[in-house]
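F.,

This is the one I mentioned.
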């Protein structure tokens, strides 16, 4: 009974605090929005692009802070601008896309750091870098809810076209779907999702939230509909675990959320029923045993 009481109190005591309940709301909503989009990012192979956009929005966030604007405004402008710049340089030079992405996102992130050094009060900007989900304002909560709703609505409305494009862009184009338009939509949604997630884990770790859930689900199923559900479930569970654990351990909430997602990925990598390392090793041993006895 004592053990059961301890486990129960581990969950119930934090819920007595308003800031924990708010953190749970933002973390779960942001995690699910990122997780759903991460499934398409995984299939399209845009993990590096997610990293680029998540870092490139930093100068926009800093400028928004300096001029008293919502962070989303500057982040969306610089996210879209960085994507356009990557595309322009890639089309007009012989440099490969991965190198162009590396140049643009590191330059933008460096610009953001320079701008931060010019801001007298760096407390709020430090929260943008590393996350401060336990101290979010009402305005930030509404911003996350609205932007996450925009992302999920857009994905739901265009999910058939996006899925066809992710699996077979040539076939999608043959059916009259504009691949360039879908690329623009995905990149725009990625920019919005980055704004949503930075409230929970900060810009530095936001790339994990748009990669890990989808990659984890990809190891666990071959059906895309299930992949969406598994990805969202992993993100939500990691958010809950991260918030509660950070309350008791007094450590970074965003860091623990990402570590929980990484632990889920490691477990799927090792023990996935079809694609896990242990399962494949067991199957290989069975095949060798049958060959030896046959």
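My design for it:
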């Amino acid at each position: 009974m004592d053990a059961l009481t301890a486990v129960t109190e581990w969950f119930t005591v934090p819920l007595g605090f308003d800031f924990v309940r708010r953190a749970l709301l933002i973390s779960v909503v942001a995690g699910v929005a990122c997780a759903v989009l991460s499934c398409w990012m995984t299939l399209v192979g845009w993990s590096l692009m997610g990293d680029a956009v998540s870092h490139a929005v930093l100068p926009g966030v800093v400028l928004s802070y300096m001029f008293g604007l919502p962070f989303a405004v500057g982040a969306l402008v610089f996210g879209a601008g960085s994507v356009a710049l990557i595309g322009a340089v890639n089309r007009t030079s012989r440099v490969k896309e991965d190198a162009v992405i590396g140049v643009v996102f590191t330059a933008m992130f460096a610009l953001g750091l320079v701008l931060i050094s010019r801001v007298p009060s760096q407390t709020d900007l430090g929260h943008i870098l590393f996350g401060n989900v336990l101290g979010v304002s009402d305005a930030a909560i509404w911003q996350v809810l609205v932007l996450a709703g925009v992302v999920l609505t857009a994905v739901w409305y265009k999910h058939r076209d996006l899925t066809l494009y992710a699996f077979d862009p040539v076939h999608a184009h043959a059916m009259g779907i504009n691949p360039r338009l879908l690329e623009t939509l995905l990149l725009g949604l990625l920019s919005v999702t980055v704004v949503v997630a930075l409230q929970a884990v900060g810009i530095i770790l936001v790339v994990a939230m748009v990669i890990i859930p989808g990659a984890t689900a990809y190891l666990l199923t071959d059906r895309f509909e299930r992949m969406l559900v598994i990805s969202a479930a992993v993100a939500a569970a990691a958010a809950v675990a991260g918030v509660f654990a950070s309350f008791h351990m007094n450590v970074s909430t965003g860091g623990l959320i990402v570590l929980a997602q990484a632990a889920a990925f490691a477990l799927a990598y090792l023990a996935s029923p079809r694609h896990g390392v242990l399962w494949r090793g067991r199957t290989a041993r069975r095949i060798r045993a049958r060959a030896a006895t046959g």
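The chain has one domain: 16-293.

Talk soon.
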